[in-house]
Amino acid sequence: MTDAAASDAGLNTMANWQAAIDDLGAALADALDHTARRIRSALREISIAAPESSARIPAGMQLPMTELSQARQRVVDFTEKYWKNYNPDYPSYSSDCANFVSQAIESGGFQQKMTRDRFNDPNDHDPNAWFSQYDENTFTEDWEASRTWTYAPDLHQFLTEGSVQAEDGTPTGTAAPESVWTSPDASVDPNALSSSGLQPGDIVFYERTNDEGKPEITHTAVYVGQDWITMPDGSRVWGDVVNQHTTDRHHAPWFLPGYAENPDFFPIKYRPVKIDYPE
């Protein structure tokens, strides 16, 4: 074989190899595109099928991007443990939302403060006290709790207007930007709490129209992070979630869409509070 013939044969072999590589590349691109379509389809199906109480990704781990402080993590962990199986160390009540929130906050490192009235009984109406304790000094030897511990409006006032944490170890907080859900058909921001600066372990209070037609804080819950939630229009999105008592809920949409069942509740004002954790 001449040098020219050998050169032609080599070029022909290289061309065949190149054609084969091109074919493999095209086949690989088709396979990747097909796989990508199947992954996107599967993700859509998961988004639609995911239940409201989904805990596939732990709440509190999505916000913020850095790890939570130990104090905040303890609060989130407390609500994850006791949102349904109640804490045996404390009594529960028919309206238990504030009691649950107070216990959760305490787990973050805060101290209770009991004051006494002129009969040496626990002063449960003192706006500067915050406690839930067994009292052995009363005639009844009963469990005593302050209104600031068990009653949502008093707890909100205590956190935002109460005593100074640095002096007595009790919790304080700062009101964050509020949101309003004007009607059951109105849109609502699925990430309003995180957008207002809240981090897992912070609190949201719910103000709605009471039976007398006046606005009143009627509920409170602990913000714990993000999860899949169902919006009022039925769509599924990734949004802020809370854990709560009274109606025991785990990873519930922060705006509590159940309110939409009663149009008399509207407008509903959401009053978030940033807690000053000892960290």
Write the layout of secondary structure elements.
Blueprint lengths: L2 H47 L20 H13 L14 H11 L24 E3 L8 E3 L1 H4 L1 H10 L3 H4 L4 E3 L3 E3 L10 H4 L7 E7 L5 E16 L5 E9 L4 E5 L14 E8 L4
Antiparallel strand pairs: 1-2, 3-9, 4-9, 5-6, 5-9, 6-7, 7-8
Describe the protein:
With 279 residues, this protein is α+β, with helices and mostly antiparallel strands. The chain is 33% helix and 20% strand. It has helices spanning 3-49, 70-82, 97-107, 147-150, 152-161, 165-168, 192-195, and strands at 132-134, 143-145, 173-175, 179-181, 203-209, 215-230, 236-244, 249-253, 268-275. Strands 3, 4, 5, 6, 7, 8 and 9 form a seven-stranded antiparallel sheet that branches. Helix 2 runs antiparallel to helix 3 (97-107). The longest helix is centred in the first third of the chain and has 47 residues, at 3-49. The chain is elongated. The model is unreliable at 39-65 (pLDDT under 50).
